[in-house]
Amino acid sequence: MSSIADNLQRIQDRIATACARAGRDPAGLRLVAVSKFHPAESVVEALAAGQMLFGENRVQEAAGKFPPLRAGHPELRLHIIGALQTNKARDAVRIADVIESLDRPKLAAALAEAMQREQRRPGLLVQVNIGQEPQKAGIDPEALDDFIAECREAHGLPIEGLMCIPPAEGDPNPYFAAMAEAAARLRLGVLSMGMSGDFESAIAHGATHVRVGTAIFGAR
Ligand SMILES: *Cc1c(COP(=O)(O)O)cnc(C)c1O
Q1: Whose C-alpha lies nearest to ligand 1, atom 13?
Q2: Residues with Cβ within 8 Å of residue 48, at least 6 apart in sequence
Q3: What is the rounded CA–CA span in Å between residue 121 and residue 130?
Q4: CATH homologous superfamily of domain 4-217?
Q5: Of ligand 1's atoms, which has the minimum distance to the CA of residue 220?
Q6: How far apart are the CA of 117 and the centre of ligand 1, in A?
Q7: DSSP state, 104?
Q8: Residue among 11, 30, 32, 34 to mutate when testing ligand 1 (max atoms within 8 A of CB)
Q9: Are 172 and 136 in contact (CB under 8 A)?
Q10: What is the DSSP string of 68-94?
Q11: Is 84 within 8 Å of 101 (Cβ atoms)?
Q12: Residue 76 and residue 52: Cα distance in Å, rounded?
């Protein structure tokens, strides 16, 4: 079995290659190490290897793992990337640096209230249901511009970019391209897309953040 440090190095090498192929500066690409379902010990191993940016799906799980690690690692950054219930908005605002899964008006209102109460403003990404899959979270691409306007105007939310999970089957490239178009149209600088199986394609289409779990921490 290869170590987390080895895996991180391999992913960083693949990111560098993908950036070179796309003519992109690797400094414009951040690796979010997705540690969901893996123990704090695995996060500690990744930190020791220099990885400071992590993603977690569940607020509860992240709240158990990450706050104790922050004291020793002031550079640590945590992104919440999973479906967020409105009743977890306050906990999410308390522990996250970025919440990538803003996907509905009720959650926008809950996050605005939570930020007010906590006096803390994590960055926000709007999750887009780019494949228009009925079972999947995310704003429909056709409703995206209005939703972002509502987040900003009605709630004053700090929307920094977009996030997507393309359909599991088939070629992700057209979806990544559509996301890049939407981000450019909306003048949003952050584009979180690409996972263990497709991050190189996402980089080719302009991802600024790739979210990689299995290829770093192993199977869940
Ligand atoms: C689990 C998860 C990932 C990481 O997926 P891998 O295939 O393990 O790399 C990325 N993004 C989201 C939203 C996830 O839930």
Answers
A1: 81
A2: 5
A3: 26
A4: Alanine racemase (3.20.20.10)
A5: 8
A6: 30
A7: S
A8: 34
A9: no
A10: HHHTT-TT-EEEE-S---GGGHHHHHH
A11: yes
A12: 5
* CA distances to 32, 92, 118, 217 from 101, in Å: 14, 11, 19, 22
Distance CA 155, CA 110 (A): 10
pTM above 0.90, yes or no: yes
Query: In the chain, what are the domain boundaries?
Result: 4-217
The one-letter amino acid code at 72 reads: G
**Atom 12 in ligand 1: residue holding the nearest Cα:** 81
Task: Per-residue pLDDT tens, the chain, 220 aa: give them.
Answer: 579 999 999 999 999 999 999 999 999 999 999 999 999 999 999 999 999 999 999 999 999 999 999 989 999 999 999 999 999 999 999 999 999 999 999 999 999 999 999 999 999 999 999 999 999 999 999 999 999 999 999 999 999 999 999 999 999 999 999 999 999 999 999 999 999 999 999 999 999 999 999 999 999 8
Pocket of ligand 1 (CB under 6 A): 34, 36, 57, 81-82, 165, 195-197, 211-215
- Bridge-based pairing of strands 209-212 and 53-56 is unpaired
Element (H or E) spanning 4, and its range? helix 4-22
Tokens found for residue 178: 């559509």
The answer to whether residues 16 and 201 touch, using CB atoms and an 8 Å cutoff, is no
Identify the H or E element spanning 114: helix 105-118
What pLDDT does 1 receive?
Answer: 54
